[in-house]
């Protein structure tokens, strides 16, 4: 074969290989955006009203369920939900069981160091929940030595422990309230909106809440994603900004909390 033709063919082979390799790399990069192609898979508890829970017909619903649905719509994706207990929820992102967790996750410095966090979508208010008439607990300092029913890895659980409380580990607020109402725990630090939702369903329960948001400070909630998935973080933040600007987040907050908690 002519030497010149051999050189030309060899050059073409290199170019074709480069194009194929680039396309393959691009496809892999695009495929890596979400675990399931074109699907935003979200981890939730499904037992934490009004954030994520099952209605009377057994359908998964709630404030954060609707946020996930609206984010997926903005990103032109489908949405799938994976339900699991709180204590294994965040670990599921590392195990790639789902793309993100949307479950009242506080945007703490520790989490930002180990995961990708979206821009905030909620500024919740903290509550000290106790039995009605219990005058021994009115501030965070008062929980020292008290038995507090907490999810141990939550911001509330960590704060209760830091204040010197004895922690009784629970899966979520329903179990916390059961322990308080049956005198097996003194109280719990938890989300005020979640407590109000529980109280509406249990109006005769002898429990009350003290707003301790000023003492605790407001830790905003955000979407938690795998540390390696910067592309998804950017896409979620773009969609989140649109939901802020078009009023969707404000509307959902008023629907579930009777007030707009989406701004600091």
TrEMBL record:
Gene3D superfamilies: Periplasmic binding protein-like II. Keywords: Signal. It holds the Pfam family SBP_bac_3. PROSITE patterns: SBP_BACTERIAL_3 (PS01039). SUPFAM superfamilies: Periplasmic binding protein-like II. SMART domains: PBPb. Its main location: other. It is found in: Cell envelope. Coiled coil: none annotated. Residues 39-260 form the Solute-binding protein family 3/N-terminal domain. InterPro entries: SBP_3_CS, Solute-binding_3/MltF_N. Belongs to the bacterial solute-binding protein 3 family. This is Transporter substrate-binding domain-containing protein. The lineage of its organism: Bacteria, Bacillati, Bacillota, Bacilli, Lactobacillales.
